[in-house]
Design brief:
The chain is mainly alpha-helical and 309 residues long. The protein is built from 13 helices and two strands. A two-stranded antiparallel ribbon has the order 1-2. The longest helix has 29 residues. The N and C termini lie far apart (43 Å). The structure holds fe (ii) ion (2 copies). One fe (ii) ion (FE2) binds next to helix 6 and helix 7.
């Protein structure tokens, strides 16, 4: 293939479409990244789905059902994008179920109170937006287009989380404590969502050259901290980091050391909920077999009817 032409399109900020020639490594990297992103979307339904039956009001329940359903939709667009690159959806799911492909470590933490649902919307969806907005301009056409719609929905998720957090932070002393506890639990795992620091992120340079990645993990993490700390202040909550301070010279927040040991432990499968999440996913897949079979049977009937007509 003509690698020069490929690189020209990438360097000229163009899009690589499924039928275009692309280096094998590019295709493989994209399929892996999109698949892991898709897996994160559908596994991410679990920690919040857990609260649908216990939402504190009908309004909160309706919002939460819509949000969890959005995440399923994000998974669908992304598996669809991976398929345009030649991946097989069953194979990708099999890799997830057998632990050969990963999903975001953040979803291996439990949601112990209602405030965690609010904190997830505010912090986890907030971090997802920071990561995903640059991907709307990535070099892969299908991935970039999927991200445009996903980001619109993520921004709704982030706002509903912040709004729910605002209500708790301005509520009774017990509600304020719940909100603070949730921030204490979710702050550091959210910072780790951006991935290892730049000096420990071996594939970043190649992804940047391919136009998949636009900003480094540390740059995006810094943006998230700078955007989120004032929001915590607005809520009257304390970010659980004694080293956090605003550097007047740079205008950026300096923050404490991240516990990477915990990150790699959760990555390896030793987080508080890894086993539970994967078991639930496999069960859901098995219990959904009849739905897939029915959909396939219906599609083939439709196709046969079209041929007959
Ligand atoms: Fe999502
Ligand atoms: Fe979301």
């Amino acid at each position: 293939m003509d690698e020069r032409r490929f690189q020209q399109i990438v360097d000229g900020d163009g899009r690589i479409e499924p039928r275009d020639e692309m280096p094998d490594g590019y295709r493989k990297t994209l399929i892996r990244q999109i698949a892991q992103h898709a897996h994160s979307e559908i596994i991410g339904m679990q920690p919040e789905g857990n609260w649908i039956t216990r939402a504190p009001s009908l309004r909160r329940k309706a919002i939460l059902v819509a949000k969890v359903q959005d995440e399923a939709g994000h998974g669908l667009y992304l598996y669809g994008a991976a398929e345009t690159l030649g991946a097989d959806r069953d194979e990708l799911l099999d890799m997830l179920h057998s632990g050969r492909q990963k999903y975001s470590t953040i979803f291996n933490y439990p949601t112990v109170s209602w405030a965690d649902v609010a904190a997830i919307g505010w912090l986890v969806d907030g971090a997802a937006i920071m990561n995903q907005v640059p991907l709307t301009r990535c070099s892969s056409g299908p991935y970039a287009r999927a991200m445009i719609r996903v980001c619109k929905e993520e921004s709704f998720h982030q706002r509903q989380g912040f709004e729910a957090m605002t209500v708790l932070a301005n509520g009774s002393p017990a509600q304020r404590r719940m909100a603070q506890d949730a921030l204490d639990r979710w702050w550091w795992p959210s910072l780790r969502m951006f991935g290892p620091s730049d000096d420990n992120s071996p594939n970043s340079a190649q992804s940047m050259a391919w136009g998949i990645k636009r900003f480094s993990n540390d740059e995006l993490r810094q943006r998230f901290v700078d955007a989120t700390v004032p929001q915590a202040e607005h809520l009257g909550l304390t970010v659980p980091d004694p080293d956090l301070r605003l550097d007047a010279a740079t205008g950026h927040h300096v923050f404490g050391e991240i516990d990477w040991t915990e990150f790699f432990e959760v990555m390896k499968g030793n987080g508080p909920c890894n086993r539970q999440r994967l078991e639930r996913r496999v069960t859901a897949h098995e219990e959904g077999a009849w739905v897939r079979e029915a959909a396939a049977a219906y599609a083939s009937k439709q196709a046969a009817r079209e041929v007959a007509a």
